[in-house]
Amino acid sequence: MHILVTGASGYVGQHLLPLLLPKAEHIYACNTSGSGNLPNSSKITWHQLADQTSDQSISALLNNVDCIIHLAGRAHQMQDTSSNPLADFRRVNCHFTQRLAQLAVKAQVKRFIYISSIKAMGEQTHDQPFSIAMQPVPTDPYGQSKWEAEQALSKACHDKIMDWVIIRPPLIYGPAAKGNLATLMKVVYKGLPLPLGRINNQRDMVSIYNLCDLIITCSHHPKASKQTFLVSDNQAISTPALINYYAELSGTTARLVPIPLWLLVAGAKVLGRSGMIERLTSSLTIDIQHTQHTLDWQPPYTVDAAFLKMKQDLSC
After folding, report:
1. Please, what is the Cα angle at 313 between 309 and 316, to 5 degrees?
2. In what residue span(s) does the NAD-dependent epimerase/dehydratase domain sit (predicted)?
3. Architecture of the structural domain at 2-173+205-234+285-301
4. How many CB atoms lie within 10 A of CB 233?
5. What is the pTM of this model?
6. Given pLDDT bands bounded at 50, 70 and 90, which one contains residue 175?
7. Rounded (10°) CA dihedral 95, 230, 238, 276
8. In the chain, where are the structural domains located?
């Protein structure tokens, strides 16, 4: 199988490429700079691909490709400085995905796997977990762009030979995780106090190991065709529990201060950090039964096993 991976030098791509090597005849690894250093293999060639890349160049790249794994996109940002975040998210996450899919159809690519986000469904859950039966109701520009990209992909593939697969991951954690999680972990590693000791939420996350395993499964599984899959470790944990996991990983002790939630919310509002506190204190749970039953798939790693593997990987 010839596989094209966009965003190949990103966090997921760096972990996915080595695992794809035994499965692929050749991997076309794409990112905006067109160069990469991981992993080193004759089966991988690096290419430049961005939303500004011409149709002609993309079409040439897609020649002989069997499967696209579309990881590239504009990531969610806590402090977005864009004057029009929705337009910027749509340009990269939605419009480029749609154009890539349309060109892939013409190139007779067999399967297009799109890595969306659980944020396409919303920001938090209350009485019941997100399930595949629920209608997405995104609440921010990032989630909106991901949901629109999903719809654009399925429309581009309608009545066409190429099939599609959509995966909606929640927060992804693993060695040297990036984004908002990395910021939180820096505080943990420094031994600084965190006012989250009284938080009793439940959040589903997914380790990079489980996510990569599902992506690879979807690259060849016949029942993945034209399906949307929710993914998680299938083991929701609280924010304090996550912090304790990372503290143990770094050999430190988490300093969790028991501050009442109402005081946290009030302080965050004054400091302009309401969004951050909401994500740290709210719940987000996911029902992955559809994924499990359709693909006969189980997350290979529990949370404990994932953190143990992280510790082993970081010590290498």
Report:
1. 140
2. 3-227
3. 3-Layer(aba) Sandwich (3.40)
4. 25
5. 0.93
6. confident
7. 10
8. 2-173+205-234+285-301
